[in-house]
Amino acid sequence: MARILTGIQSSGRPHLGNILGAIAPAIELSKDPKNESFFFIADLHSLTSLKDGGERRAFVRAIAATWLAFGFDYKKNVFWRQSRVQEHTELAWYLSCFTPFPMLANATSFKEKSEKLADVNAGLFTYPVLQAADILLYNANIIPVGKDQKQHLEMTKDIASRFNQLAGEDILVLPEPQIDERIMTIPGLDGQKMSKSYHNYIDIFLPENELKKVIKKIVSDSTPLEEPKDPDSDITFKLYSLIASPAEIETMRANYLNGGYGYGHAKQALLECMLEKFAEPRRIFNYYMENDPELESILVEGEEKARAIAQETIVKVRKVLGFSS
Ligand code: TYM
Fold first, then answer.
1. Residue 325 CA to ligand 1 centre (angstroms)
2. What angle is formed at CA 160 by the lines to CA 323 and CA 105, rounded to 5 degrees?
3. Residue of the nearest CA to atom 31 in ligand 1?
4. Whole-angstrom Cα distance, residue 176 to residue 243?
5. How far is the CA of 124 from the centre of ligand 1 (A)?
6. pTM
7. What is the pLDDT of residues 191-218, one digit of tens each?
8. Which value does ipTM take for this structure?
9. Backbone angles phi, psi at 176, to 5 degrees
10. Which residues are catalytic?
11. Chain centroid, CA 9 distance in Å
12. Element housing 17 (H / E)
């Protein structure tokens, strides 16, 4: 039995990058009866960038609704908000004392974010330690994430090994990332990695007319309509390739190469493909967004299950560290 675990920050509504890079592959893994899945909303992590409580509440709801919209079976598995299980912050403190300062100072994601953001706070710096706690608290084996999280997973293993060395036994389980190299980093509207912080993302749950406006913003070159175009360097084609069927992709590729097919046509095809492939998730998402008490009770049920497991680990850790007998 493998334990799968992953989380999404509640710093915005989930976008296509989160969905294709993390949510959909994680749900696929969760369907294997041999696996037990732990999916959570990293609302504490979102505080590193988002300070507004009302916005956070709305984003938490949207993320929870997305997991359910893509078919996550919350009854068989475990589904919770990180902030409601206080063992996450407790373990993060213990682990921070096993984390060498240079490991955090050299983290690529911290360096990148601290160059871009005005608010470079201590939470942003210790972000990977809280992430390690999220994983190690539940003895997780496999962590499906996007490529940008690879270093955080290496740090998690390193921190766990340091703790186990002190304990003299393998109290914390070393996890493995699972990264779909085909998906890697989903491009955003401008071709950079799709990200909330780059404002280049596609929210697939927008009403059709708004989604259409967003898709129109995808950057393309200025090749005239009549001329052939290079599908492999075009962002619309890349996004279409991640969603459409192999036959549909081949048809679009031929259209690009033949000429007489404009980027406007490709964007319309991408919109139609999204509306078709995501019709059911869009329906379920809207259902949960309008049924707050139902969503809340699903999360509360998950939080009870998560807490019980987290407490087993924390009891062992406290004992090793001399905080309990
Ligand atoms: P977050 O919310 O930034 O990203 C959530 C997941 O989405 C993936 N992702 C992408 N994948 C492909 N292409 C993209 N453009 C793209 N953008 C985002 C991310 O790789 C990630 O898997 N630190 C985590 C949240 C977290 C976590 C954890 C994950 C907190 N604790 C424990 C796993 C285990 C994060 O980056 O969230």
1. 37
2. 105
3. 131
4. 27
5. 15
6. 0.94
7. 999 998 789 999 999 999 999 999 999 9
8. 0.98
9. -120, 135
10. 113, 193, 196
11. 7
12. helix 16-18
